[in-house]
Amino acid sequence: MSLPTQVKIVEVGPRDGLQNEKETISAEVKIELVDRLTNAGFVNIEAASFVSPKWVPQMATSAEVMAGIQRKAGVIYSALTPNMKGFEAALAAGADEVVIFSSASEAFAQKNINCSIAESIERFRDVAAAANQHKIRLRGSISCAFGCPYQGEVTPEQVADVVKLMRDLGCDEIDIADTIGVGTPCHVQAVMQRVAQEFPIAQISGHFHDTYGQALANIYASMEVGVSIFHSSVAGLGGCPYAKGATGNVATEDVLFMMQGLGVHTGIDLNQVVDAGQFISQHLGRKAVSRAGNAIAAKRLA
Ligand code: HMG
Ligand code: MG
């Protein structure tokens, strides 16, 4: 199959990227990050997470962030909502899309959301109905689709089972997430092809972490089998608090550089993303993890 001519890049840095930071980042800095990303041209930004602040303290300012950002018409600002309490908060904050999240691995579901996969789906039923009632987009995210830090192997069949459950809840989009970055291209294609039997491939996204350096290869492999939505994180920010050793999502700058080279349209201004990556990295006091971002920033100084 030939590559898609255009892809949607969902920027997850303000949520997935920052959630694991130990030092509290002010709402002002998060707002500036989201605004910079909006200006760079993303059509979907994961900006907030209405989860328990005891579980993920860094996301406790999510309402403030959502209230402070400058929204651009047509841009979807998403928020994680593990239950109705999260949904009510997301609704009040004006989220355009709510994200329910479970796992292809039982062990990870227990660690991350303190319940089984089946129990999580039961909790999401109310969230899905409320999203439908309020005409808010619903996205389902499936962690550990290629391997689990606690249980090890995860089969394509196990991923497909959760895809079916999320499809039946009425999800508009479903993320196949490599939380610990262990997927490799042929494995990724096998999973994507299996889940595409259950849910339209045009509404499936690839959420890759670069822990083992496979993320760009996995994105390319996914495009070869028809996936055209990808998640990435500016400056390669990230890691999951419930997956020890998990590094960041694939860096947005690296994905955009690859897409540019392939002639795949994204609608996003790479230079502005590089600026946003340098901004947040300076704030965090460390170098960005994006190779392309750092190379472009260095070239500017030369
Ligand atoms: P629990 O302790 O089983 O729930 O947690 P609970 O209902 O017993 O509530 C405990 C306390 O949390 C109560 O407060 C609730 O009110 C409060 P208390 O009475 O003790 O003061 N609470 C909430 N507060 C704010 N917002 C809420 C909320 N819900 C309950 N929505 C729960 C269950 C699901 C809440 C918890 O496990 C949780 O918040 N987990 C979230 C973990 C998380 O955010 N992980 C990271 C996101 S997933 C991820 O990063 C992976 C992904 O990016 C894909 C990938 O990268 O692979 C999606
Ligand atoms: Mg992630």
TrEMBL record:
Domain of life: Bacteria
Pathway listed: Metabolic intermediate metabolism; (S)-3-hydroxy-3-methylglutaryl-CoA degradation; acetoacetate from (S)-3-hydroxy-3-methylglutaryl-CoA: step 1/1
Lineage, uppermost ranks: Bacteria, Pseudomonadati, Pseudomonadota, Betaproteobacteria, Burkholderiales
Organism listed in the record: Undibacterium macrobrachii
Protein name as annotated: hydroxymethylglutaryl-CoA lyase
Keyword list, A-Z: Lyase, Metal-binding
Enzyme class at the top of the EC tree: lyase
Gene3D superfamilies assigned to the protein according to its UniProt record, in alphabetical order: Aldolase class I (3.20.20.70)
All copies of domain Pyruvate carboxyltransferase, residue ranges: 7-274
